[in-house]
Design brief:
The chain is built from 6 helices and 12 strands. It has 263 residues and is of the alpha+beta class. The chain has a single domain, classed as Endonuclease/exonuclease/phosphatase (Deoxyribonuclease I, Chain A, 4-Layer Sandwich), CATH 3.60.10. β6 and β7 form a beta hairpin. α3 packs parallel to α4.
């Protein structure tokens, strides 16, 4: 813990953990978050670089999948106690998109929500069905009364404030009216969108495409979110985006997004 007794929790779509490992380890060393949720590991369980991460002081649990998806939770404030693997509601869903653990007295669900493109189509239908399952499970978490959070790459741009030139995303599943409405309903259950709650009027992005100098032009979108249950929302003191790693060599197209909680 820091001297101020705050807990820093971050979410980071790493876009291939083994190909981006130097970027991840550099960021872990410089930023020293206490807890990290990673998405898009793009590796099997056996190929997860556990020893490299442990060398930097982090314990980890992960849920991998060959070539696609994959999520992990890292902690340097105690071993993550796994409480869930795979989003409930569809026992036939084989995609590795959700992992959950108790860390420091907080129940943390780390997710990689389906992209849904091309829209319309079966991938978009899967996205909406997955969001319905998330909605049902999120209500269960809130009803428990536990200090809980849902974080990760939601692949949803909530509002026009969260996108550079909304008209360019009009036909993208991330900005579809259906996905935006489901995200709105999810948050309205009683969750706090941490970044937006502390920065209500700012244009803040967490993702920039690799092409057309999107990062240099700040032509981004906000799709990485941290949602807090009421007991955690009361402890929120800071939230932001570590933009610098997005400018590093051979980096992810996402930037780490983080919060700080009083503990």
């Amino acid at each position: 813990m820091t001297k101020k007794q705050t807990l820093r929790i971050a979410t980071y779509n790493i876009n291939g953990i083994n190909s981006r490992l130097p970027v991840l380890l550099r960021w872990l060393e410089e930023a020293r978050p206490h807890v990290v949720g990673l998405q898009e590991l793009k590796c099997t369980d056996e190929a997860f670089p556990a020893k490299d991460i442990e060398a930097f002081g982090y314990s980890a649990i992960w849920h991998g999948q060959k070539s696609w998806n994959g999520v992990a939770l890292l902690s340097r404030v105690g071993e993550p106690v796994e409480t869930g693997r795979g989003l409930p509601g569809d026992p036939n869903d084989e995609q590795s998109r959700y992992i959950e653990a108790a860390i420091c007295g907080i129940l943390i669900g780390n997710l990689y929500l389906p992209n849904g493109n091309p829209w319309p189509g079966p991938k978009f239908d899967y996205k909406l069905a997955w969001m319905d399952r998330l909605d049902a499970y999120a209500r269960h978490l809130l009803d428990s009364g536990l200090p809980a959070m849902l974080m990760g790459d939601f692949n949803v741009i909530p509002t026009e404030q969260d996108v550079y030139k909304p008209e360019r995303w009009a036909k993208d599943a991330l900005f579809s009216p259906q996905a935006r409405e489901k995200f709105k309903v999810l948050v309205a259950q009683g969750w706090t969108d941490a970044l937006r709650s502390l920065h209500p009027d700012e244009r803040i992005y967490t993702f920039w495409h690799y092409w057309r100098n999107s990062f240099q032009r700040d032509a981004g979108i906000r799709i990485d979110h941290l949602l807090l249950s009421p007991p955690l929302a009361e402890k929120l003191v800071k939230a932001g985006v570590d933009r610098e790693p997005r400018g590093w060599d051979k980096t992810s197209d996402h930037a780490p997004t983080w919060i700080e909680l009083k503990v």
